[in-house]
């Protein structure tokens, strides 16, 4: 792969992480699950991708999220937050707040509408990103940080590209049965090693028996656990919603025979590729989301699925067209980049269709404009 060269310090950190994971494989009889490998690659203290000091977002990072593209994304989410709150005080909890830009854009849009946020809670695992957020959000006295979620929350929860960053086990079908694909060590590098497991690891796959031998995919137990905890938190709060925005599909579109290599993807300096063993600690590793499994986990825990739709439909129904009307086409310097950004967020060829929005909640309904575009019957 022709990818940008890292600095010498970055290479040293990557080699240290490689050694750490190699040692764990050796102490685990030569095999660890891919989920464990991904956990260490992303979150190992001081060395993992999200636990180290490298820049993750923006031009100098490895990928760009919707809030980094344009403030109108956060402003549109703010419209949804205000509608869901109705007459209640605005309380927001954000998981994995990235650079802090989404939080800033949401709060500024609420203030501009005359409805200040009284409590903005950020749950952030990355110390490096937490520092960046604290610098970006100086002056917003309503913001506080937590390392673990509260047991109860009443308000709106925002999860933008959170589920895709959670570790996943890999599965492979061989000779008619499902094996777990883990990681071993061969010679001087990591390798995939498949082994039999007793539990039904393919239970979330529709028509799993019909898929061909050699089929590789992911399961999502950690994401399902997160959805259960999220639902319980909202139930304990008595009233609230959670908006989960990510790339993925319903189960019957996720596990297609044509998607035989799975959805695992790595991001390094704005280059996407499929090698999870490349530049450990210096690249992001993600997988698409099975939104059917997420919805089922929420419902089984007592929450309701309020809506499921693609990102373009959600943004339009939440108020994006009205916000665009506040930007004058005569102000070319402002209007042109905003229009280009909106095109990127809503175009079916870019983020508009691939990114989905799942809204779960307790004790409330979504606005009528969103309800009319709901596609939860596809889950």
* Strand/helix succession: HEHHHEHEHEEEEEEHEHEEEEHEHHHHEH
CATH class descriptor name of the domain at 66-164 and 220-250 and 262-373:
Alpha Beta
Mean pLDDT: 93
Query: Any low-confidence stretches, pLDDT <50, length ≥5?
Result: 55-62
Overall form: globular
CATH fold-type name of the domain at 66-164 and 220-250 and 262-373: Rossmann fold
Largest sheet: 8 strands, mixed
Briefly note the structural class of the backbone: alpha/beta
The CATH architecture term of the domain at 66-164 and 220-250 and 262-373 is: 3-Layer(aba) Sandwich
Could you explain the architecture of this structure?
The chain has 379 residues and is of the alpha/beta class. The chain has a domain of 242 residues: 3-Layer(aba) Sandwich (Rossmann fold). 46% of the residues are buried. The radius of gyration is 21 Å and the shape is globular.
Name a few traits of the molecule:
single chain, 379 residues, alpha/beta, Rossmann fold, eight-stranded mixed sheet, 14 helices, globular
In short:
The protein has helices at residues 8-27, 34-43, 66-69, 71-85, 101-112, 127-136, 221-237, 251-254, 291-300, 311-318, 320-324, 332-346, 351-354, 368-371; strands spanning 32-33, 90-95, 117-123, 143-146, 155-160, 170-174, 177-186, 189-195, 216-218, 240-249, 265-268, 271-273, 284-286, 289-290, 304-310, 355-362. The chain is of the alpha/beta class and 379 residues long.
Write the layout of secondary structure elements.
Blueprint: H1 8-27, E1 32-33, H2 34-43, H3 66-69, H4 71-85, E2 90-95, H5 101-112, E3 117-123, H6 127-136, E4 143-146, E5 155-160, E6 170-174, E7 177-186, E8 189-195, E9 216-218, H7 221-237, E10 240-249, H8 251-254, E11 265-268, E12 271-273, E13 284-286, E14 289-290, H9 291-300, E15 304-310, H10 311-318, H11 320-324, H12 332-346, H13 351-354, E16 355-362, H14 368-371
Parallel strand pairs: 2-3, 2-5, 3-4, 5-10, 10-14
Antiparallel strand pairs: 1-7, 6-7, 6-9, 7-8, 10-16, 11-12, 11-13, 15-16
Helix pairs in contact: 4-5, 7-9
